[in-house]
Amino acid sequence: MTSGIKQSGDLAVISVTSDLSTLRQQLLDLFCQLAYKEGDFLLSSGQRSTYYINGKLVTLHPHGALAIGRILLSMLPTDTEAVAGLTLGADPIVSAVSVVSAYENRPIPALIIRKEAKGHGTKAYIEGPELPQGAKVVVLEDVVTTGGSALKAVERLRDAGYVVEEVISLVDRKQGGAELYQSVGLKFEAVFAIGEIQERYKQLKV
Fold first, then answer.
1. In 10 A of CB 18, how many CB atoms?
2. Could you tell me the domains of the chain?
3. Coil, helix or strand for 194?
4. What does 63-129 look like in DSSP terms, one character per residue?
5. pLDDT value at position 124?
6. Contact status, residue 128 vs residue 160, Cβ threshold 8 Å
7. 200 labeled binding residue
8. CB atoms within 10 A of CB 58
9. Annotated binding residue at 115?
10. Which of 10, 21, 110, 164 shows its CA 20 to 30 Å from the CA of 136?
11. CA-CA distances (angstroms) from residue 92 to 11, 132, 145, 190?
């Protein structure tokens, strides 16, 4: 499965044909066109900000999901046995990666981590296929600010007996998340740093 991009009006449309470098550029444009806003915002971390990124406007977009699935799949270590993330932001991301992995003949299950245990049935924190103890899982996130959300997912997965060594985010706001992960021995990567999105946003406004 390969992906490429064409333009439809002012919005980047990702279809099935081109390389990862082109895909990344078009995904950047989607973030600028759909998700990035400037103004006065209160973040979930409690901090105020002059900009806001609603990642779900891209991760739930069909073309955004396709690009995200391919790009993040290419970033996963070869021994990855599952991808996981904290609901709600990571839900469409882990699903996109899992679906694309099947097309790429590298099937990787997706796990969704609840913020609170399910109140009935198994009362589980983790939804998805049961994996063997010691399975290697990579945590995915849409936007990292302080890093707390993904760290909750890491802790739940480790409590379940899985091995988690890495967090991958679509966007790093550069507000302490990377430092938090480093302090607890986690590798961290992001597809985009906030500065790259802001620079491209300015270019597209001209």
1. 16
2. 3-205 (3.40.50.2020)
3. helix
4. HHHHHHHHHHHHHS-TT--EEEEETTTTHHHHHHHHHHHHHTT----EEEE-SS--SSTT--SEES-
5. 84
6. no
7. no
8. 26
9. yes
10. 21
11. 21, 24, 19, 17
pLDDT of residue 13: 58
Question: Is residue 149 a known part of a binding site?
Answer: yes
> Which SS3 state, helix, strand or coil, does residue 13 take?
strand
Task: Give the integer Cα–Cα distance in Å for 133 and 21.
Answer: 36
What is the Cα gyration radius of the chain? 17
**Tens of pLDDT, residues 12-69:** 556 555 689 999 999 999 999 999 999 999 987 778 899 999 999 999 999 999 999 9
d(CA 133, CA 135): 6
**pLDDT exceeds 50 at position 186:** yes
The answer to whether 56 is annotated as binding is no
Q: Which pLDDT belongs to residue 12?
A: 56
Residue 148 marked ligand-binding? yes
In this structure, are residues 33 and 7 in contact, taking their beta carbons and an 8 Å threshold?
A: no
Return the pLDDT at 45: 73
What lies within 8 Å, CB to CB, of 203 at 6+ separation is: none
- Is 142 part of any known ligand binding site? yes
144 is in an annotated binding site: yes
Residue 147 known to bind ligand: yes
